[in-house]
């Protein structure tokens, strides 16, 4: 089944967590700042996760750069995406975005983690939660800069996850803590926010997507991540997306419209998600595992194989990475953004 991604509590696995990782529905683990002490400890943790699961398992993190960077000490300071359009030296935006994508992905992979949920493809608009996580406010500029960043990620060997489909930048509310509603009409959404996803999908830049817990009532009454309209009719049929669809975290406040954890899991899977995330609520995640038989009808072997294709097969060690000229130059470039 392998369709649930959950979290772990600290620097090392507990006995209960090792047991949970053996459950057939667990297919992924997402790590947070609380799971990080130093690179050596992180590598040990990722190795322990794979050992406990005893089968292919996807390890992920939100390590975008700027304020959303889970690992700090011992890692390069990846700048916020908004700042990458203006280089601090003679570098072009193309070079900066490519090298920052490569640097972020290379360091994450060297830690035994398969994917960082990046890049953010939302427009820099009125959102309280997106802000400088976005590359730009203009769709064509987001497409350009994100394409460079994606190229860097792929050069490092990491698959890409675009978020938050079809766009969170024009919604002020933070969907982590409140219901998020975008009342714009179809034309505004499709010509601006959705254009970014559509063009990057057409260019085969995206291996996975994460939909927003946002309701667009002019088109559908469900949040995008629970909506067959958005995930089946628009994303898969109209845009031709064939990659992995991750739900955003089912623990977020805006997801509660779908009910309890079982209701949210069923809504996400039946709408078209290949893997669901249940984080920061162990009881909620365990309730999904306890009812996994009821969810089996919505999980296909194709989804499992697509998710497992995101697992990195050729990790490079942190020590090997830091001996390369490219890492030294990219690290220096990243640090140059810290200078006032």
Q: Can you offer a commentary on this structure?
A:
The structure is a single chain. This protein is of the alpha/beta class. The protein has one domain (4-26, 37-336): TIM Barrel. 39% of the residues lie in helices and 11% in strands. The chain has 13 helices and ten strands. It has helices at 15-21, 39-53, 93-110, 139-156, 186-191, 193-202, 228-238, 261-271, 282-290, 292-295, 301-308, 318-322, 325-336, and strands at residues 4-6, 26-31, 58-61, 63-65, 68-69, 115-116, 161-165, 208-211, 244-249, 275-278. The strands form two sheets. The protein has an eight-stranded parallel β-sheet with strand order 6-3-2-1-10-9-8-7. Strands 4-5 form a two-stranded antiparallel sheet. β8, α7 and β9 form a beta-alpha-beta unit. α3 (93-110) packs across α4, α3 crosses α13 and α4 (139-156) crosses α6. The longest helix is centred in the N-terminal third of the chain and has 18 residues, at 93-110.
Structural class: alpha/beta
Determine the CATH topology: TIM Barrel
Percent of sequence in beta strands: 5-15%
Judging by the overall fold, what is the CATH architecture? Answer: Alpha-Beta Barrel
Number of domains: 1
Topology pattern, helix = H, strand = E: EHEHEEEHEHEHHEHEHEHHHHH
Low-confidence stretches: none
What gap, in angstroms, lies between the N and C termini? 50 Å
Mean pLDDT: 93
CATH superfamily annotation: Glycoside hydrolase, family 3, N-terminal domain
Number of helices: 13
Detail the topology: elements first, then pairings:
Blueprint: E1 4-6, H1 15-21, E2 26-31, H2 39-53, E3 58-61, E4 63-65, E5 68-69, H3 93-110, E6 115-116, H4 139-156, E7 161-165, H5 186-191, H6 193-202, E8 208-211, H7 228-238, E9 244-249, H8 261-271, E10 275-278, H9 282-290, H10 292-295, H11 301-308, H12 318-322, H13 325-336
Parallel strand pairs: 1-2, 1-10, 2-3, 3-6, 7-8, 8-9, 9-10
Antiparallel strand pairs: 4-5
Helix pairs in contact: 3-4, 3-13, 4-6
């Amino acid at each position: 089944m392998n369709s649930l991604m959950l979290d772990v509590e600290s620097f090392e696995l507990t006995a209960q967590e090792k047991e949970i990782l053996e459950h057939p529905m667990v297919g992924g683990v997402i790590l947070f700042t609380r799971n990080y002490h130093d690179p050596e400890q992180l590598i040990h943790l990722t190795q322990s996760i794979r050992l406990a699961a005893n089968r292919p398992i996807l390890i992920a993190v939100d390590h975008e750069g700027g304020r959303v960077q889970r690992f700090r000490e011992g890692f390069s300071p990846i700048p916020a995406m908004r700042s990458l359009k203006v280089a601090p030296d003679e570098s072009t935006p193309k070079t900066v975005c490519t090298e920052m994508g490569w640097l972020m992905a290379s360091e994450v992979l060297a830690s035994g983690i398969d994917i960082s949920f990046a890049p953010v493809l939302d427009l820099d608009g009125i959102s309280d939660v997106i802000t400088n996580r976005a590359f730009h406010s203009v769709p064509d500029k987001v497409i350009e800069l994100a394409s460079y960043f994606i190229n860097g990620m792929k050069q490092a060997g990491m698959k890409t996850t675009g978020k938050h489909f079809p766009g969170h930048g024009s919604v002020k509310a933070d969907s982590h803590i409140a219901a998020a509603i975008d009342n714009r009409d179809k034309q505004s959404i499709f010509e601006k926010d959705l254009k970014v996803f559509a063009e990057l999908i057409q260019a085969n830049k995206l291996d996975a997507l994460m939909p927003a817990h946002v309701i667009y009532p002019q088109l559908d009454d469900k949040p995008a991540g629970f909506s067959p309209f958005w995930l089946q009719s628009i994303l898969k049929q109209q845009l031709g997306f064939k990659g992995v669809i991750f739900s955003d975290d089912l623990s977020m406040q805006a997801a509660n419209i779908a009910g309890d954890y079982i209701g949210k899991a069923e809504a996400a899977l039946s709408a078209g998600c290949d893997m669901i995330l249940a984080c920061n609520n162990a009881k909620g995640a365990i309730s999904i595992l306890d009812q996994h038989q009821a969810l089996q009808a919505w999980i296909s072997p194709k989804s499992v194989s697509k998710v497992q294709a995101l697992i990195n097969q050729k990790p490079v060690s942190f020590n090997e990475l830091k001996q390369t000229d490219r890492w030294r130059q990219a690290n220096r470039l990243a640090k140059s953004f810290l200078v006032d």
